[in-house]
Inverse folding.
């Protein structure tokens, strides 16, 4: 496939046809990889209502049940192929349901459907996979071809987005990978409100080209960047965010980084398009425009984590000063002769409004002093003996107070309270972010294996 441009101006009918075409392409590939449709029977609606009676009382469940019923009916198990008239029934159902959502402005229905589907994931993985594809198609049909519901945080927020198109070689059939792009928009929507709306990309990259974007490798992991930033924070990112310009960094050009309480949000702009990134500072999890739906590309989040870390920990730099990016880099030597010099970052002053003064990219941190960084020096699993009730109670209380889960104690051993460096670090364990507690728990587990 070769990229041919963006979707452009099309009619509602053409848009619906494109979504249905993309849905069928997606389902065909899914059927080859996961033959779960053979397990969907024509009476699936009644089976679902009997099996999940509590969920069946929700009006959104009827939409899910109808989708499952229509999908089961359109697959002819005798000749192992889809039936055209039943496929038409499914398409009309999706078009009608999307039309009703638009007419009633009941876009919260989409969010409720996604939440209900997520609740079913543990009960029936095949159904959840099938529903996800159809709900994404429903979402696309409820949107306009060039304007999408991108935010549900405190309201409904829409944005015009340029959809990249490719054509199947030797044909005129356009492929937008709409379901993949839309699933990424959906999974990040709950992060987007009025203040975060400027961070939503206006130019997306076709999924087939995401891995072709040249992004410098970072020096360490996202969790390690976040932990070091937590313990060594010297600056705050100002309200409105910090703008950073990259030079000699492959295809990456610039980024806007915003610190929003428990989350770091960023819009990263590359030569090919843009990417939204959200990093959770509590548990260390991350999502991006190209990480959802199995894309698995953490490079965007890694570059944001490194930039955030350097913004809040680095030595004070003059505005617009250059900073070499640290760590080993893997870049295409043909991209530019300047790449040999290594990537550099420029911190830029910003104006929040036209009549406001220039804002520095970071301000001195004046928050409460961070606790010392704990390191496990003794896991305490070396004492042989049987766990008494007193030992078990001590262990339970310690886990509750610190939020750290101790690995399974080997049979024939008792639990001895671990030791940390520095000596007073243990009293601060309870207030640490979750991802740091997980790191400590992993250290305890590793030391357990060493002594047993």
């Amino acid at each position: 496939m070769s990229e041919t441009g963006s979707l452009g101006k099309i009619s509602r009918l053409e848009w619906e046809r494109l979504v249905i075409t993309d849905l069928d392409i997606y389902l065909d590939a899914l059927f080859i990889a996961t033959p779960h449709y053979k397990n969907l029977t024509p009476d699936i609606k009644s089976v679902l209502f009997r099996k999940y009676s509590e969920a069946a009382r929700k009006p959104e469940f009827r939409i899910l049940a109808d989708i499952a019923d229509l999908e089961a009916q359109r697959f002819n198990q005798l000749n192992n192929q889809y039936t055209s008239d039943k496929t038409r029934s499914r398409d009309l159902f999706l078009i009608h349901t999307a039309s009703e959502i638009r007419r009633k402005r009941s876009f919260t229905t989409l969010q409720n459907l996604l939440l209900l589907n997520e609740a079913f994931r543990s009960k029936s993985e095949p159904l959840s996979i099938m529903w996800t594809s159809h709900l994404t198609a429903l979402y696309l049909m409820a949107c306009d071809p060039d304007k999408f519901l991108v935010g549900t945080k405190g309201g409904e927020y829409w944005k015009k987005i340029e959809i990249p198109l490719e054509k199947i070689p030797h044909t005129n059939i356009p492929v937008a990978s709409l379901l993949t792009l839309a699933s990424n928009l959906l999974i990040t929507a709950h992060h987007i409100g009025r203040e975060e709306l400027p961070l939503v990309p206006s130019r997306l990259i076709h999924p087939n080209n995401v891995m072709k974007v040249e992004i410098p490798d970072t020096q360490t992991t996202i969790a390690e960047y976040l932990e070091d930033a937590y313990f060594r924070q010297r600056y705050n990112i100002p309200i409105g965010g910090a703008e950073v310009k990259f030079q000699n960094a492959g295809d990456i050009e610039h980024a806007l980084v915003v610190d929003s309480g428990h989350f770091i949000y960023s819009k990263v702009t590359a030569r090919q398009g843009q990417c939204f990134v959200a990093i959770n500072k509590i548990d260390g999890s991350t999502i991006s425009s190209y990480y959802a739906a199995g894309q698995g590309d953490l490079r965007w989040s890694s570059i944001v984590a490194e930039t955030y870390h350097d913004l809040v920990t680095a030595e004070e730099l003059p505005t617009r000063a250059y900073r070499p990016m640290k760590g080993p880099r893997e870049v295409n030597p043909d991209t530019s002769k300047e790449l040999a010099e290594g990537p550099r970052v420029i911190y830029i002053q910003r104006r929040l409004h036209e009549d406001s003064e220039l804002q520095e990219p970071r301000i001195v941190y004046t928050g409460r002093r961070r606790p010392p960084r704990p390191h496990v020096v003794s896991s305490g699993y070396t004492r042989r003996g049987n766990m008494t009730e007193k030992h078990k109670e001590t262990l339970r209380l310690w886990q509750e107070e610190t939020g750290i889960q101790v690995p399974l104690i080997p049979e024939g051993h008792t639990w001895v309270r671990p030791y940390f460096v520095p000596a007073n670090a243990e009293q601060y364990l309870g207030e640490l972010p979750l991802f740091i507690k997980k790191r400590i728990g992993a250290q305890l587990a590793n030391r357990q294996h060493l002594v047993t």
